[in-house]
Design goal:
The complex is a heterodimer of chains A (656) and B (301). Chain A has 656 residues and is an alpha+beta fold. The longest helix of chain A has 23 residues, at 2-24. Chain A is globular. Classes of the chains: A alpha+beta (656), B mainly alpha (301). At the A-B interface, strand 28, strand 29, strand 30, helix 5 and strand 37 of A face helix 2, helix 3, helix 4, helix 5 and helix 6 of B.
């Protein structure tokens, strides 16, 4: 009996100990893995050429919505050119007033405003003075760019040490940076003075443009952040150490081979962890920081991240870092859907069935930025398409491969998804609608967006110079996504992914430009694609090929008349169908029109240009083909649907 | 009169006058046909000679729909104006038909087509006035709905409470549907009272109906709700049958078309049932109760 009691007690004790272990285990457990050094795979270490190393000591005081920062920056001249000045981005100053470039699109109330309060700044230990640089004469009060004059020029491989002490009020978030209204959630990005990029003897240091992103050199980042004990902190990189004082928890984050640093502090954030194992057995720690009311999305978030990692590892290249953090942000934080090295932000709708593909597609898109912009660090201010277009394309591919086609839906009362199409509604009341499960292609949204801006700007245009937001969205997101899908269709998926692998391995931890990507394509495609980039990338050519007529001549002879009605040139395959056979022709598509004459023993039923819909830019898929005999069934069937929907609409109105 | 009896009598009334549903259906179909013609023209232009048409019959292609909207942007952009314009005419014609129907329901012995048209002509102007007033009320309800939406946006933009936002918006939506129902009831009963009382003073009748509905709201709304439920049951049956009918080959679409027309006719019958129950209920609830004291008299034989 005593023995039994002893065993029972031991089991009880073990259970309590285990439970206690789980409860007391700090959620911010330190990340240790010998395959990595400072958060990056040892095998990838030498590839990242660190130019700007940062260390921060941050005192986060939420009671005053304030951060006090000591920043150390070591900048190295890794170019052949000399420079006697250092340009700095002061992104936080974008929130200073309504006279900044950023405020063109985001009007700032008093609560949304802030600016860096720099207490002192030294260069190599000597006090220095910051000079603001006006890059855009229309906005003389924009102070998001500044420079430091050096006493002597920095030659190749010289370095300079800059120390800056400053305070920054954390504003109520209007976009990307700040405290979420109505919650204790702080998203801290674009917060620190950050070196521009010295390239070909010139400093690239653009102001903070609204809706555009950033450009920076790689480096090692270390941040020691002291936050009150009730705050959880997440950040770029690995958590190297946590120390506990009487009043605060002090977190030390480290990350090598990245070009930005963002962090989050919240008094109400749940954390979940998972591990992803690469094919070589090394592991990536996946951190999920969730709003308590969105815990139900944890598995879906995790699955989307794992699927994305798997897709990239198989088709493009490995994720080189030790950790990846998904931050599920509150709606009021205005910081969702944004990417930072080893960290990205998402949010999910309250009601969001998997078939709507949300939040999965958002996760896939933001994850894709870990590669396109994270590791392949293009200049987002000049060539935003290199990351946004690629991320849109890969997110579509991930969705297609792992989730199949999404279903069209519209929302009732702003929340309830209803599968189908809402053609017309009056004050939230659907009037003409169809309720059915209709699948869509992932690129359809880009197609829809492209049609809203066919010709204003081109992909090759400098992003920040594009005249308006729509033009930017189309030329940075939609058109490049369609361009990449079209390229994939021309080259074949396997070949195209092979080229993407080459592009990634060649330019990882570098600053690729559009021309670099195009050269990789040209060098590996086996076919001449000059015409493609000329029409799709450089120009905003409009494409449309149509079959004008197909008629029988004498005997067995037929005539096919095809036409190019758009400016864009795109070689096309032509299929000519008889009852039991298909005749294949090819047209280089250069001339405005072409007539093909051919003979056939069998009666010809129709002809089709671009039968595999390789050219997603073609403006009218319907006129790509022709039937020798008209068929009314489709137009009648679709009109019958429409007729029924209108009968319903009239009944709704008629009940008044 | 108990609700059950109302339904029995109302259904009988609808059954006896079922022929008039053809008129309602004909007008509805004609309106829809007029509005469908521009769409048919667009679809014919786009698909009749294209192989894409055949593909669309087998599988929906959203890319094609996006293109269609883009290619025929101007034509499609004008469609809502056409719809609202035709709806105006449709409502005026509906007034005529409802006038005839209510006249017949009011006096079941006179249910010849001539009586129907006589009623239609007689009440058309009065019903049109009712329509204008009710449209104004709808406008006010939608304005209120809009302001409420602005208030919700303003409040929840500063508060992190998604569930609260969802519940408030859902409540607002339900409230809108409820008010649409209430306005429909007021509109219907005003027309009913205009027919029964043979009054031309629309405002007076409307005010009287407001009082009437508020006093008898429970019973009125119960009957309205039960009829609406019967209508909803029909829609559910239609959807179940719709799932069974395969979408290909395309000639099954003819079957679907027939089923859809059956649904429309069913819904029109339900609309007739609304009016029929309303007539009975109104007569019942406004009937004067005469208290008669029985007296026994000695009668000499």
């Amino acid at each position: 009996m005593k023995l039994l009691s002893f065993i029972a007690l031991m089991i009880l004790y073990s259970g309590i100990s285990l439970l206690n272990y789980n409860l007391t285990q700090p959620e911010n457990s330190v990340d240790i893995d010998t395959n990595y050094s400072c958060g990056i795979l040892k095998s990838e270490m030498g590839k990242a050429d660190n130019v700007a190393d940062y260390s921060f000591f941050v005192d986060f005081i939420p009671s005053e919505n304030l951060i006090k920062v000591k920043e150390n920056l070591i900048w190295r001249n890794k170019t052949n050119y000399q420079t006697d000045e250092i340009y700095l981005h002061l992104y936080a100053n974008a929130y200073k007033s309504n006279n900044t470039i950023f405020a063109r699109y985001y009007k700032l109330s008093e609560a949304n405003r802030t600016a860096l309060q720099i207490n002192n700044i030294t260069v190599n230990g000597k006090t220095a003075e910051l000079q603001f640089v006006v890059k855009n004469k229309e906005f003389p009060q924009d102070s998001t760019v500044a420079k430091l004059q050096l006493e002597k020029p920095l030659m190749e491989n010289d370095s300079v040490k800059i120390q800056i002490n400053y305070e920054l009020k954390v504003p109520v978030s209007v976009k990307r940076f700040g405290k979420a209204k109505g919650s204790g959630f702080y998203f801290i990005s674009q917060w620190f003075p950050k070196a521009g990029v010295f390239e070909n003897g010139k400093w690239i240091c653009e102001p903070y443009y609204p809706y555009l992103n950033f450009y920076a050199d790689f480096g090692k980042y270390e941040a020691v952040i002291a936050a009150p004990k009730n705050f959880k902190v997440a950040a770029t990189g690995i958590l190297e150490k946590v120390t506990f004082t009487d009043t605060a928890n002090v977190f030390k984050f480290v990350q090598n081979g990245v070009h930005d640093f963002a962090w989050v502090a919240s008094d109400n954030l749940l954390q979940r962890k998972k591990q992803y194992e690469r094919k070589d057995g090394t592991k990536i720690t996946l951190n999920f920081y969730l709003q308590p009311n969105r815990l139900k999305y944890f598995e879906r978030y995790a699955s989307a991240v794992e699927n994305s990692l798997s897709f990239f590892e198989k088709n493009i290249g490995i994720y080189p870092y030790q950790t990846l953090s998904l931050i599920d942000v509150p709606k009021t934080s205005a910081s969702g859907g944004m990417e930072y090295p080893t960290l990205f932000t998402v949010s999910a709708e309250l009601i969001s069935p998997v078939e709507t593909h949300q939040p999965e597609k958002l996760v896939a898109h933001e994850f894709s930025h870990q590669y396109f912009q994270g590791v392949l660090a293009n200049n987002e201010v000049y060539e935003a398409w290199l990351d946004e277009g690629f991320a849109s394309y890969t997110a579509s591919k991930i969705m297609e491969k792992f989730y199949g086609k999404g279903l069209l839906h519209f929302k009732l009362a702003g929340y309830f998804p209803v599968y189908g199409i809402n053609f017309l509604s009056y004050n939230d009341i659907p009037v003409i609608y169809s309720i059915e499960k209709i699948p869509y292609h992932e690129y359809d949204r880009s197609l829809e967006s492209y049609y809203k801006n066919l010709t204003l700007g081109s992909i090759a245009d400098t992003s920040y110079k594009l005249p308006n937001r729509r033009s930017y969205v189309v030329n940075a997101y939609s058109k490049p996504e369609l361009m990449l899908h079209t390229l994939e269709r021309i080259l074949g998926e396997e070949k195209f992914f092979g080229i993407l692998q080459k592009y990634y391995s060649t330019y990882k931890f570098k600053h690729p430009q559009g021309s670099d990507f195009i050269n990789v394509i040209k060098n590996n495609a086996d076919v001449n694609l000059d015409w493609f980039f000329e029409n799709v990338y450089k120009k905003s050519s409009v494409f449309n090929y149509k079959v004008r007529s197909l008629k029988k001549l004498k005997g067995k002879e037929y005539q096919l008349f095809v036409e190019r009605t758009g400016e864009g040139i795109f070689p096309v395959d032509i299929f000519i169908y008889s009852k039991s056979d298909t005749l294949h022709k090819f047209w280089d598509g250069k001339s405005r029109w072409k007539i093909f004459r051919f003979t056939s023993d069998e009666k010809i039923t129709g002809a089709e240009l671009d039968p595999f819909r390789k050219n997603l830019f073609d403006l009218n898929f319907a006129d790509n083909s022709i039937l020798t005999e008209p068929s009314y069934s489709a137009s009648l069937a679709l009109s019958a649907n429409w007729f029924f929907w209108l009968q319903n609409a009239l009944m709704i109105f008629g009940s008044i | 009169m108990p609700v059950k009896e109302i339904f029995v009598l109302a259904t009988r009334n609808v059954y006896r006058n079922m022929k008039f549903v053809i008129l309602f259906w004909g007008i509805n179909a004609a309106g829809a046909l007029i509005l469908s013609l521009p769409i048919y023209y667009i679809l014919s232009d786009n698909l009749n000679y294209s192989m894409l048409g055949q593909k669309l019959l087998n599988e929906y292609d959203f890319s094609w729909l996006i293109q269609l909207k883009f290619l025929y942007e101007k034509n499609i952009g004008q469609f809502p104006y056409l719809l609202y314009g035709l709806t105006g005419i449709y409502l005026l014609v509906q007034n005529f038909l409802v006038g005839g129907l209510l006249a017949v329901f009011h006096n079941p012995q006179k249910n010849h087509m001539v009586d129907f048209f006589y009623g239609g002509v007689k009440y058309w102007l009065r019903f049109t006035r009712v329509l204008l007033i009710i449209l104004l009320m709808f406008f006010l309800v939608f304005e209120l709905y809009g302001y409420l939406g602005d208030l919700i946006n303003a409040y929840y933009s500063g508060v992190e409470n998604e569930l609260g936002d969802f519940l408030t918006r859902s409540f607002r939506y339900v409230l809108l549907i409820f008010f649409i129902g209430v306005l429909t009831i007021i509109s219907d009963y005003t027309k009913v009272s205009l027919v029964i009382n043979d009054n031309t003073e629309v405002f007076k009748e409307l005010l009287q109906i407001l009082k009437f509905t508020s006093v008898n709201f429970y019973k009125i709304f119960t009957v309205f709700f039960i009829v609406a439920l019967i209508g909803a049951a029909g829609v559910v049956v239609y959807n179940l049958l719709g799932f069974i009918i395969p979408s290909k080959p395309y000639y099954y679409l003819i079957l679907l078309f027939v089923l859809r027309q059956m649904l429309i006719i069913f819904r029109l019958l339900i609309k007739m049932l609304f009016y029929s129950t309303e007539i009975l209920l109104y007569k019942d609830l406004t009937a004067q109760v005469v208290k008669v004291k029985p007296e026994e008299k000695e009668v000499e034989v």
